[in-house]
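The data are quoted verbatim for completeness:
=====
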Amino acid sequence: MGKHYLPNLPQMEEMLREIGFSSIDDLFSDVPEGMVKEFDLPEGKSEYEVFTEMNEILSRNKTVLDMPSFLGAGAYFHYVPAHVKYLIERSEFLTAYTPYQPEISQGMLQALFEYQSMMAELYGLPVVNSSMYDWGSAIAEAALMTVRLHKGKRKRFVVPKALSPERKAVIRTYTRGPGLEVVEVPWDEKGRLDLEALKNVVEDAAGVYVEMSNFFGLVEENVREIGEIAHDAGAYFVVGADPTMLGIFEAPGELGADIAVGEASFLGSPMNFGGPRAGVFAVRNDRKLVRQMPGRIIGMTKDADGRRAFVMTLQTREQHIRRAKATSNICSNEALVAVASAIHLASLGPKGLRELGEVILKNTTYLRKRLSEVAEVPFDGLYFKDVPVRFDVPYDVIHERLLERRVHGGYYIGGHFPELGETALFAATETTRREWVEGLVKALGEIIGEAGV
């Protein structure tokens, strides 16, 4: 059983006697025979031995700091200023769990209030909660919320087919239990949401979701019109937006969104193997919507002595709220990630955020231009961050040979969207250097030439 790994081994017999068992085998006697296995674990090692062994294992990783990376599809290499990490590592933030006694957590509550305020301005909607788990869970919670707003009379939620497979999976997981129907709308010949197809499925829908740049990186040209179609059918309009694009594009609220969602961790957090993240969730100023929001809302008020104070204004589920009254089962939020996002956003300011968006757009446009010289970009239009590239060679071969040249290629999406063939998403951010793009294009040309295509 690897007993030498148990820190309470000297007390084991005493603990077993206390709960009425004579041995470990007796404790696990109700487990079917053959299910409990002995593990041949090695003897324990010293801290330094573990450190050196783990360091050797970790050195095998190759990160975006070791080679140029064009991996897209929701994980992007953004530069995070050093002071962001310094500030969130202060004990006031780093050790602050989601506050159950908010009155004693004024600093954390104020930081979350600032996060909400900045995201409200950025997304163009006045009410923002203090974060969800990630972008996918925010969409899923929006789907459940639109159904609640229709009092369960409508149980269909419409999403684009050109949506991240991961986010689709999260939405379907959340909606399966309550029995919601998730309807996908195909893309048109331009790679954007097909408006005619939307009109055919929007009737009786509780909500319609669209992203301002879809999974392929294409900037959606008809967001406002999609919202009008949704509203004409009596559905709520949900818009997803990457916060790094909102310095140069119209905010979801300005485009008619009832609910807006996004990914806060693109500001303030490193890639970190995909997590942790924090989902943005915002709604328009409508009491009916606010009361059905998931998560928590931090408010500002005055105490009995007239001093400014921060309070937990709304919380949708806690130990002291009855289950039937809860609008969501989200309890803990991604508070530290949200605070990091707020610090980064405050550091940028309006001018910096605009410049960030402009640089990303410029780099994406250049990446698309150069890639189209060696392979096919399936759709014309304006791209932000991601660019789909289709090859006549199996992409796994291309990817492996790129790695041999110390270049990390794009994310293969042909398995998710077979109609696109051997297609991968290549991404650019503000960190993408022109010489990286030139190196990528040169390497692709060589690889394709070697394949004889």
Residues 209 and 238 are 5 Å apart (CA to CA). The chain has a mean pLDDT of 91. DSSP finds 14 helices and twelve strands in the chain.
